[in-house]
Amino acid sequence: MTDFEDTGSRRIISLLMENAAGALSRVVGLFSQRGYNIETLTVAPTDDVSLSRLTLTTVCDDHTTEQITKQLNKLVDVVKLVDLTEGSHIERELMLIKVRAVGASREEIKRTADIFRGQIVDVNSSLYTIQLIGTQEKLDAFIEAMKDANILEVVRSGVSGIARGEKLLTL
Amino acid sequence: MLKDKNTATGTIDAGNTLTEMNGDVEMLSGGDMIARVLEEEGVEFLFGYPGGAVLHIYDALHRNKSVPHILVRHEQAATHAADGYARATGKTGVVLVTSGPGATNAITGIATAYMDSIPMVVISGQVQSHLIGEDAFQETDMIGISRPIVKHSFLVKRTEDIPRILKTAFYLAASGRPGPVVVDIPKDITAPTIKRPYHYPKEVNLRSYTPAEKGHAGQIKKAVEMLLRAKKPIIYAGGGVIQGNASEALTALTHHLNFPITNTLMGLGAIPGSDEQFLGMLGMHGTYEANNAMHESDVILAVGVRFDDRVTNTVSKFCPNAKIIHIDVDPASISKTVMAHLPIVGPALQVLEEMLSQVKDAQSQPGISNQPDAKALEQWWSQINDWRAAHGIYTKNRFDDTTDKIKPQEVVQLLHELTEGQAFVTSDVGQHQMFAAQYYLFEKPRLWINSGGLGTMGFGLPAAMGVKLGNPDAIVACITGEGSIQMCIQELSTCTQYDVPFLIVNLNNGYLGMVKQWQDMQYESRYSESVYQDSLPDFVKLAEAYGHVGIKVTDKASLREQMQKAIETSKTKVVFMDVYVDPHEHVYPMQVAPNGAMNDMLLSKTERT
């Protein structure tokens, strides 16, 4: 009865917090302090400038998820919180990837980017910078598809998410 | 640098505050604002230590005169004294320290308060705003360093924010699950030249913070059904009952249901120690009957507890047959280490009162399921009384009381007898703390003042100062050991300055007793760095050097007489009673770890369950 089910899965936790000094460090500090793991983290002010929206992804079991959400809610700066993975939702991440594009591979790289609906946003005679937006899985798949190319640099924004339909995370 | 843009239109003499009026608005400097806020909050004692970054505030306090300040000898003691005051009175403890080392010295005391959910406001000075981040003299990132051990913290950036932020700090510290709040204030914010409108808000509304005010009635109803069906119930109550002022409600419910009850280390006094239904403390050094009753129970009513590792022993073996009802004001405490079958989020007082009222309602309805199972309870009590008779520490002394050596347990028993379980007792950490918890049966809540969560040596003496200041007519005793007492012994000087009398009972065994006990049990008595040899000071002379009374006790036959005298004298003087106890005594019972269940215990050096 005291054993918690161990079903580790990926969670997207999205929260509104006071756009105040120290708020972000309290959220991040909580994760290291209590031994939780953060896979991605993204934060920016919302249309209400007094609020920031923070989205993080983590892989954990049900019990840890419950503890994370409770501990986050307990932080005085956190106003509201939702585990988006509990319902249907949309998630998006942006990636910029710079690859060497010379000779025969140049055309192949462009074709692969097109298949993934990526856009080439910077170009010179020897490289492409491709912008790709999608789920974490899609971005992973693109990197996998590009594994024969010479990837020079990858930057990802971390996952943002929003619930589908009428469900809102607002005040 | 900030410039004062407000034009003063007049100056009035309001006490010793340097007040200017701008129309109807009072204009105050940051330092004066702080003094005024402490006055308006009714702060009885401010525990602190001055330094560069807080000199403006200290000057304001000197002029204001309405907030008595206790100058400690080390900032750690300021936080412990404020903590002891808070635990004993239920009011918020208030601390003022300077930046850098002042702030870092306060950290241990803040962590102590955090772990035990004690309301405290700590105002720390900070270097001037424009110097922050430049590694200035006595600069430290107090907000960063204290972050994991505070309920919340604030860095004040504008003088005019001081009243609102302090009001919020006091509100946060004392509401919901209480805890320490740090307010870090750069020196320029408190400068006498910068005056801003002073307005102290009457209340605080935070959209992001709404502590539970009421338990869910439906959940309470389900709990009542579980309680009335229970055949082997037990109530497991902790510090949340003390902090939540719910002891009377808990006692009433316990008596009405005729259930056995055990308290955590933090919960001692939640029910009178002399109560027939009280089984003593549970956990690592809990009683045989309490740990067995927990292990065998079918329903546990857990109130204001957090299933700490010192209570549960091996979590996977914890109380295999029990359904758990868990009441706590902090939802994050529920199902943190042990899954609760029925969670109730709410203040202990309201939930317990509602629970008793629902139990009575249910009993007024016809039907056998609306009554407690009297027959099952009778059998359960009979089982518990058998446990008590077999190995209970309150039915018979389980230590050897026939030798000439003074046993530490006997000293605590004697103090309990002579003070009738009504004294405030602070402690440090180690064997003496466990002996105090086991053998001083507290008749009321808030009498037992110890660092349960963090286990801070050095807590007892400064805490006793805070307790005595808050309860000047009470008997206050600090049960300590020769190891712990030396960690904050400099506070004997503070006691002299402010004439704060109490009794110190030093259970002197010449070893770090609890370390030695573990070394005896697990390291074949290799006493690695746990022996003082001949390095201990003459505590009697030391006490006398500070102007106090020292009493050395080595003879068991004179213990009672000397203790009586010491208690009497401690009403007007600090009495340092240095009691030479048997150095080889161990604390029992002791749960077997690792991999033991609640009821796996060592009962003496030779007996095991």
Care to describe what's here?
The complex is a heterodimer of chains A (171) and B (609). Chain A has helices at 23-33, 62-74, 105-115, 136-145; strands spanning 9-18, 40-45, 51-60, 78-83, 89-100, 119-123, 127-134, 150-156, 160-163. Chain A contains 4 helices and 9 strands; from the N terminus they run E-H-E-E-H-E-E-H-E-E-H-E-E. In chain A, 26% of the residues lie in helices and 40% in strands. Chain A has 171 residues and is an alpha+beta fold. In chain A, strand 2 and strand 3 (51-60) form a beta hairpin. Chain B has a 6-stranded parallel β-sheet, sandwiched between helices. Chain B has a 6-stranded parallel β-sheet with strand order 13-12-11-14-15-16, sandwiched between helices. In chain B, strands 18-17-19-20-22-21 form a 6-stranded parallel β-sheet, with helices on both faces. Helix content of chain B is 35%, strand content 18%. Chain B is of the alpha/beta class and 609 residues long. The longest helix of chain B has 18 residues, at 374-391. Chain B is globular. At the A-B interface, helix 1 and helix 2 of A face strand 8 of B.
Question: Strands, helices and their partners?
Answer:
The complex is a heterodimer of chains A (171) and B (609).
Chain A: E1 9-18, H1 23-33, E2 40-45, E3 51-60, H2 62-74, E4 78-83, E5 89-100, H3 105-115, E6 119-123, E7 127-134, H4 136-145, E8 150-156, E9 160-163
Antiparallel strand pairs in A: 1-3, 1-4, 2-3, 5-7, 5-8, 5-9, 6-7
Chain B: E1 10-14, E2 17-22, E3 25-29, H1 30-40, E4 46-48, H2 55-64, E5 69-71, H3 75-89, E6 93-97, H4 101-115, E7 120-126, H5 142-146, E8 152-155, H6 162-174, E9 180-186, E10 195-197, H7 217-229, E11 233-237, H8 239-243, H9 247-257, E12 261-263, E13 278-281, H10 288-296, E14 299-303, H11 309-312, E15 323-328, E16 342-345, H12 348-364, H13 374-391, H14 408-419, E17 424-427, H15 431-439, E18 448-449, H16 460-470, E19 476-481, H17 492-498, E20 503-508, H18 513-522, H19 539-545, E21 549-553, H20 559-569, E22 575-580, E23 590-591, E24 601-602
Parallel strand pairs in B: 4-5, 4-6, 6-7, 7-9, 8-9, 11-12, 11-14, 12-13, 14-15, 15-16, 17-18, 17-19, 19-20, 20-22, 21-22
Antiparallel strand pairs in B: 1-2, 2-3, 3-10, 23-24
Helix pairs in contact in B: 1-2, 1-6, 3-4, 3-16, 7-12, 9-12, 10-13, 14-15, 14-20
